[in-house]
């Protein structure tokens, strides 16, 4: 069982470049989310999805775009990278319904120079 | 909006001792779930323990247990017989009943001294 797979694990971008962080899960989870982790701030929600074709904004959505064309995949797009987007990014998924914990990917460390 | 606060940025404990990590949260809801996640240096987020708000009994998972005080909105994690492998960042998280989003605290870095 692969769980939640994120690629790449590390990435360096120049300011203004765009890129897509990939996320795939093989557990048939309905809910998927993207978080960013910054020192002293915990994890903050960027975007989330409750099913294929349905996405919504989280706490810090600016500069990011998502789509969910299949249950398995939930890519995160950085439209024009900025140094403020230097962070560790996590994708997570869970079953629909109440109270289940999330399964997280191994994270992507992104540096924007 | 719900908030989660972990007031201890860092904690340390001697190996084999017991340590308690604090977490408080703010909500007006009655149906919710609370979690503790462990993040070792590998960066992987690992679910340690889960508590349903409607259950009065404190959750326990082997050496990990919680002290859930609903009226005080407190959710502390107790680690007994601390081991070197327990060294990690620990995050407290809140999820509304039926809602999709997790709200995290700032984290507590736990060091285990041999």
Q: What is the CA–CA distance across the termini of chain A?
A: 36 Å
Report low-confidence residues of chain A grouped into runs of 5 or more: none
How many alpha or pi helices of chain B? Answer: 0
Q: How would you describe the shape of chain B?
A: globular
Mean pLDDT of chain B: 94
* Overall form of chain A: globular
What percent of the residues of chain B sit in helical stretches (DSSP H or I)?
under 10%
Mean pLDDT of chain A: 94
For the biggest sheet of chain A, the summary is: 7 strands, mixed
Give a brief description:
Chain A is built from no helices and 11 strands. Chain A is mostly beta strands and about 110 residues long. Chain B is mostly beta strands.
Topology:
The complex is a heterodimer of chains A (113) and B (114).
Chain A lengths: L3 E4 L2 E4 L5 E7 L5 E7 L5 E9 L2 E4 L6 E3 L9 E3 L8 E8 L8 E2 L3 E5 L1
Parallel strand pairs in A: 2-11
Antiparallel strand pairs in A: 1-3, 3-8, 4-5, 4-9, 5-6, 7-8, 9-10, 9-11
Chain B lengths: L2 E3 L4 E5 L4 E3 L2 E3 L5 E8 L6 E7 L7 E2 L2 E6 L4 E6 L8 E9 L5 E3 L3 E6 L1
Parallel strand pairs in B: 2-12
Antiparallel strand pairs in B: 1-4, 3-9, 5-6, 5-10, 7-8, 8-9, 10-11, 10-12
């Amino acid at each position: 069982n692969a769980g939640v797979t994120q690629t790449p694990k590390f990435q360096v971008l120049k300011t203004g470049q765009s890129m897509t962080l990939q996320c795939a899960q093989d557990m048939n989870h309905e809910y998927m989310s993207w978080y960013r982790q910054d020192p002293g701030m915990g994890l903050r929600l960027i975007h989330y999805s409750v099913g294929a074709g349905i996405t919504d904004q989280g706490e810090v959505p600016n500069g990011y775009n998502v789509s969910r064309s299949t249950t398995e995949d939930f890519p995160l797009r950085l439209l024009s990278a900025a140094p403020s987007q230097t962070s560790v990014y996590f994708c997570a998924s869970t079953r629909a319904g109440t109270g289940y914990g999330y399964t997280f990917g191994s994270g992507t460390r992104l540096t924007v120079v | 909006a719900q908030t989660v606060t972990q007031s201890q940025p860092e904690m340390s404990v001697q190996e084999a001792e017991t340590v308690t990590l604090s977490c408080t949260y703010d909500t007006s809801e009655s149906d919710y779930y609370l979690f503790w996640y462990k993040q070792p240096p590998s960066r992987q987020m690992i679910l340690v323990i889960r508590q349903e708000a409607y259950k009065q009994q404190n959750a326990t998972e082997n050496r990990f247990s919680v002290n859930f005080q609903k009226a005080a909105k407190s959710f502390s994690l107790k680690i007994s017989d601390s081991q070197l492998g327990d060294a990690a960042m620990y995050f407290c998280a809140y999820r509304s009943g039926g809602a999709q989003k997790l709200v995290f605290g700032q984290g507590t870095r736990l060091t285990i001294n041999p």
